[in-house]
Amino acid sequence: MAGLPSASQGSPPVLNGSFLLSPLGGLMGAQAVLGLLVWSLIAATTYHLHAAYGWVMFVSLFFWILTLLFFITYLLQLHQKFYMIPWPLLLMIYNAVATVLYLTAFVTCAAAVQPTSWRQWDYNRRAAASFFACVTMITYGVSTFFSFRAWKGFGSNAATSQVTDHA
Q1: What is the pTM of this model?
Q2: What is the residue extent of each domain of the chain?
Q3: Residue-wise pLDDT tens digits, 74-92
Q4: pLDDT by residue (tens digit) across 141-161?
Q5: Residue partners of 42: CB distance under 8 A and separation at least 6
Q6: In whole angstroms, what is the distance from residue 65 CA to residue 98 CA?
């Protein structure tokens, strides 16, 4: 099967410390922490009584799990074993979709927090979840930019990439 590691590529995964220091690695770590904050704050409220918070919970939990999977994949350099997958393009599309869906989750969460409900016990959690959903959306947007640059080759044009590939 194309893209699966062969017996010669059966080396154990190696931890890539430089990935943690890269912009994409740092942003993925921040997305994991912020996404955890969003869904845990929503989970600590009576979100099941409000349909809007169900959407916020789905988006935050779904992208938190996928972000952890991407983070582990890049941290252990597993993306190099599956070389047939266009990882930069896949990561760019993932970040763009996450940005758009986190935008809807942020707007939904912020609109569902009613200013007259500040006496309710979970008002602060809902307001904090709205704030962290906005910050998470911004980090996914910045990741989309860096993923786009990685996918395009950091600004190289077709003429220079052809010369260096065949020289």
Answers
A1: 0.80
A2: 21-43+54-84, 86-161
A3: 999 888 888 888 989 999 9
A4: 999 999 999 888 875 555 444
A5: 53, 56, 57, 60, 109, 125, 126, 129
A6: 12
